[in-house]
Every structure is written in structure tokens, then in C-alpha cells.
Design brief:
By secondary structure, the protein is α/β, with parallel strands linked by helices. The chain folds into 2 domains: 118 residues, NAD(P)-binding Rossmann-like Domain (Rossmann fold, 3-Layer(aba) Sandwich), CATH 3.40.50; 176 residues, Dihydrodipicolinate Reductase, domain 2 (2-Layer Sandwich). The chain has 9 helices and 15 strands. Strand 4, helix 4 and strand 5 form a beta-alpha-beta unit. The chain is globular and about 70 Å long. The chain starts with a strand and ends with a strand. The mean pLDDT is 96.
């Protein structure tokens, strides 16, 4: 089988997580594009690539005609880069978040529709066997019909740099992962949210670095989310600590440990007995960025739609901006993706 070809756009820090996966899958890098050609050349040299460095995306796509484009630019550039690639006849896989605004995200989805090309977003935490085990167990009904989801995320994250100056650093930069995981693991989609963002005393962030959110999800599921990026002591996993409550039992996933579940044994009563129930296994082999890349390659080879194709992923992004909107307005707001 001939190698797939890719043009990588963006040679910054995140590129270091992608080039090893491209090499393992024997994807041919046709070019590396960056506003700083010197950065593109540095990546080419670092990974021993035989390709050109460029700062002109349109010209490079016209010359190389790759099978797909990998967009590793900053969020503010995603709309321009992805739209340019789609219009040039390329499929695209891009880093999260999809865009820096809902207006841009919708424009990207419409461009994918008009061009007939596929645009997927790399939500790297979906390709994690523990997360897939949670998803499969919830879907199996082993704890009954899902009613409630809770996620807690607390970290004392001293990043400095651009995050320290962002207006909503937790929600904009991190919570997209948790919101997408809630959708992935539960199979439920967002309907509305009531949220409050705030900046706790002692915070080293300029913007709101903490939030409490109550999401109404499809099928009557309620998802509560509490998080902070300026919580010193007893930090939990970057993936968050989760509780899924069904009408017959509960599944816990905490500190990246093996998920565990228990459910009512026999008939319900005033003091029902509970027993451990099986948490299903996952066939997930390729994780994080490698998993996302494999999904794009599977699409190119078989036509199978990627799970984070833009029409789906925009629902996770909509949760982010709905939280910010709800906090500003001080009321419940509906969540609309398109």
C-alpha cells in the first residue's frame, strides 16, 4: 500500500507529540509549514525528514497535493488554516480546540460540507483504554440507565505565559477535554448549562481560573463539573475524577486508577445489597495523538467516519462557550452547536 502523505502546519511544541506517530505509521511528510520557516527547518532536521520547509500554505498545498493536512497551529489560526486546506481539496486533522469562537467553528463545518472533505479534531483523551472501558461499561447497562455524571478537576498549575493572561484559562484551555470526555463516556449530548466562573483569592491568573457548572444533557442526564487551576494541594488527575450514577449502580474512575463499579444485587428494597459488577475491557491499542492519527488513516483507507469528525466535535466546543456565556449572564443558557 502506498504511503499516505501529509503537510504539517505548525512547528511549535505540540509538533513533538505528532512527528513520532507519523514516523511509526510511515506517513510521508511532504512539507512542514510555519510562519517562521526556521522553525519548520528545525523540525525537519530534528526528525530527519526529506521535505521542504515553507511559510506559504496555499502554494505548498498546490505543489505537494497531500492526502491530508495536520493543523498544529494556535487556536486563533485554526479556522484560516483548516479552511484553506479544505478548499485545496485536503482532508484535515486539527488540534483541539476546534476554533477560538463558535462562529469560526461553524464556518469550518460549513466549509467541510461544501468541499466534501473530512475535518476531524484530535481529542487525545478519547484514545485511552481506561476511558473506553468506562464508555463500554456505561453503554452495557451494568449500572442501569445513566442519570448523573460528576467530574472534579483540581490542580495548582503554575504555567505562566499566555495562560496566566487568558480571560477564562480553565474553561478555554483545559475543560474542553473534560466536556468531551463526558460526552464520549456517557453517550449523552449537551442541552443547556448554568455556570459560574470565578478567580479565587490568591490566584496567580488574571482571568477566571475556576468554575462550577451544571449541564443538562440528553436523556435527562445531569452533568456537574467543578474545576480549578489554582487549587494548591491534593490535586487530582489531569483527566479528572469521575462518578457515573445509574438507576441500579455507580461507576467510579479516580486518579487514573482502574475504573470500578457496583450495582444493586437482586430486587430493590429499603436497604438493598450491592455487589461489584464487571467493568468491560477495551481493545484500544494506540493512544493519544497516535490514536487520532490512526483514526484519520482508517478513514483514508476505508471511508470509516472518525468519531471526532467536526459535526460531532463542535458539540464539545459549544459546551465551552456556553459556560462562559452563562457565567457572564448569570443564568441558564441553552447549548446550540450549529
Amino acid at each position: 500500500m502506498a504511503k499516505e502523505t501529509v503537510v504539517v502546519v505548525g512547528a511549535g511544541g505540540i509538533a513533538g507529540a505528532w512527528f513520532p506517530a507519523l514516523a511509526k505509521e510511515k506517513v510521508e511528510v511532504a512539507a512542514v509549514v510555519d510562519l517562521k520557516v526556521s522553525s519548520a527547518r528545525s523540525r525537519i532536521k530534528e526528525y530527519g525528514l526529506d521535505c521542504e520547509a515553507s511559510s506559504d500554505l496555499k502554494a505548498t498545498l498546490k505543489k505537494t497535493r497531500p492526502d491530508f493536512v495536520l493543523d498544529l497551529t494556535v487556536p486563533e489560526a485554526h479556522c484560516s488554516v483548516t479552511s484553506t486546506a479544505l478548499k485545496a481539496g485536503c482532508h484535515v486533522i486539527g488540534e483541539k480546540p476546534m476554533a477560538s469562537s463558535m462562529a469560526e467553528a461553524r464556518r469550518m463545518v460549513r466549509t467541510a460540507e461544501r468541499t466534501g472533505k473530512t475535518f476531524m479534531v484530535s481529542q487525545s483523551r478519547r484514545w485511552n483504554p481506561l476511558h473506553d472501558r468506562v464508555r463500554r461499561t456505561i453503554k452495557s447497562g451494568n449500572v442501569g440507565d445513566l442519570t448523573t455524571i460528576n467530574c472534579d478537576f483540581y490542580a495548582g498549575a503554575h504555567f505562566g505565559g499566555f495562560r496566566a493572561k487568558m480571560p477564562s484559562p480553565l474553561i478555554l484551555d483545559m475543560s474542553i477535554h473534560h466536556f468531551d470526555l463526558a460526552r464520549f463516556m456517557s453517550g449523552a449530548d449537551p442541552v443547556a448549562v448554568y455556570a459560574h466562573e470565578f478567580n479565587p483569592k490568591g490566584s496567580w491568573y488574571r482571568g477566571d481560573a475556576a468554575a462550577s457548572c451544571i449541564f443538562e444533557m440528553s436523556n435527562g442526564v445531569v452533568f456537574t463539573y467543578s474545576g480549578s487551576w489554582c487549587a494548591e494541594g491534593y490535586g487530582n488527575s489531569w483527566n479528572g475524577d469521575w462518578r457515573f450514577i445509574g438507576d441500579r449502580g455507580t461507576l467510579l474512575y479516580e486518579h487514573d486508577n482502574e475504573p470500578r463499579a457496583e450495582a444493586v444485587a437482586g430486587k430493590k428494597s429499603s436497604r438493598p445489597k450491592v455487589r461489584p459488577v464487571k467493568v468491560l475491557e477495551s481493545p484500544t491499542k494506540y493512544t493519544e495523538m497516535h490514536g487520532g492519527l490512526r483514526e484519520m488513516l482508517a478513514f483514508l483507507r476505508t471511508g470509516k467516519k472518525p468519531q471526532t469528525e467536526c459535526h460531532d466535535n463542535i458539540k464539545s466546543l459549544a459546551m465551552v462557550f456556553a459556560v462562559i456565556d452563562s457565567s457572564k449572564k448569570g443564568r441558564r443558557v441553552p447549548i446550540r452547536a450549529m
